[in-house]
Structures are given as C-alpha cells and as structure tokens.
Amino acid sequence: MEIAVFDIEGKDTGRKISLDDSIFGIEPNDHAIYLDTKQYMATKRQGTHSSKERGDVTGSTRKIKRQKGTGTARFGDIKNPIFRGGGRTFGPRPRYYGFKINKKMKQLARKSALTYKAKSNSIIVLEDFNFEEPKTREMAKLGANLKLTGKKSLIVFPEQNKNVYLSSRNLKGVEVVTSDELNTYIITRASVLILVESAVDVLHSTFKN
C-alpha cells in the first residue's frame, strides 16, 4: 500500500512511500496480539509482594494448651494464623510474572498491530525532521499541524533523537520511540502512529530478517 508523506507543517509533500503488505497488510492475529501484550505487561510487574507466614513470624513454638479435654478446638503455638499477630495463610511471595513467547509469535503480533493501524488509516508518515534545541512548544505545534491534539500519538524514529524526545516529555499523550523499541503494547495503545520516513525502511528490514 502507498501512503502520502507529510512535512512538519502538516502539508502533503506530494510524495508517497510504499508500505510493505507483508508487514502492514497481513491477516491480523488477535491471539498473538493478546499474548504479546500480556507478556509485556507481565514482565513490567515488580513481583516484590511478600507476607509473613507461620514459619516467618517471631514467637514461641510452645503448645498453648493440651490437645484434648478442654471442650474447645485444639491449638498449636501462638503463631497460628487464626490468632492476632499470627502468620498469614498462603500469603503472597516474591515472584517473577514474566513468561516466554517465541520470536515468530512476537513478530506476528507486531505485524498484526501495524496492520490494524494501517487498515484504520491511523498511520502518518513524516519526512525526516529535527529540532535545533529541545522545545515543547515546537512539538505541540507539530501535533496541532497534524491535527493530533487530544490524541495519543506514537512517533517512531530510526534512532535516538534527543531534541525531539526532550521536546515531547511534557506533552500528555505523546511518546517518542526508536524503531527497535517498538512493541505491540505501545502500538495498540496509541491512537495514531507517526512514522518518520527513514524509520519505514528500518521497519521493513527489521521484519524481513
């Protein structure tokens, strides 16, 4: 498919760039998107939750009362979970929530997410640009020119662009990433995907390898 290339003023340059159908025009796989998004969010969980169970609580292990003949329920030591200050039953323990996904599955998920963006006309290609210095005002102006105010936009560069990144940090709903940082979660979360022209070639070579 072909898509028009715009400049930072929001005007059509008259040029078009071709998006590879093997990346932006496949049959989307919703389950792959689900698995990749779930894996991304799971690896972000700290998993540092913890609680003291019976063996972790400080206290005597002396049996509180005799086993039989009291007319009430039997009790062990003071660390029994039913007592105030006792250990917690089956409490949370530190753990790692992440899980593995095959490389081909992750690639399929990202292609599917890009395809959905292409089908909904939510991809904009910008000619290469840079700011002389970090200016939030310049980035806000760019969003206004492209009519993206109030929308979650994801700008993809082929490599780190410090000035553009710093210019976007204080703007709500604007995220700047490099092509190798692109993942299914941030693609699906964005309303509009903005690809810098040179980033398209990088994406083509990345997904074809």
Question: Stretches where pLDDT falls below 50 for ≥5 residues?
Answer: none
Contiguous helical run count: 7
Q: Roughly how many Å is the radius of gyration?
A: 27 Å
Name of the CATH superfamily of one domain: Ribosomal protein L4/L1
**How far apart lie the N and C ends?**
20 Å
Largest sheet: 6 strands, mixed
Features of this protein?
single chain; Ribosomal Protein L4, Chain: A; 209 residues; alpha/beta; elongated; 6-stranded mixed sheet; 34% helix
Report on this model:
- The chain has 209 residues and is an alpha/beta fold.
- It has a domain at 2-29 and 101-208: 3-Layer(aba) Sandwich (Ribosomal Protein L4, Chain: A).
- It is 34% helix and 15% strand.
- It contains 7 helices and 6 strands.
- It has helices at residues 21-24, 30-44, 103-119, 136-145, 162-168, 184-189, 197-208; strands at 2-6, 12-18, 123-126, 153-157, 174-178, 192-196.
- It has a 6-stranded mixed sheet.
- α2 packs across α3 (103-119) and α4 (136-145) packs across α5 (162-168).
- The protein is elongated.
- The mean pLDDT is 92.
Describe the secondary structure blueprint for this structure.
Layout: E1 2-6, E2 12-18, H1 21-24, H2 30-44, H3 103-119, E3 123-126, H4 136-145, E4 153-157, H5 162-168, E5 174-178, H6 184-189, E6 192-196, H7 197-208
Parallel strand pairs: 1-3, 3-6, 4-5, 4-6
Antiparallel strand pairs: 1-2
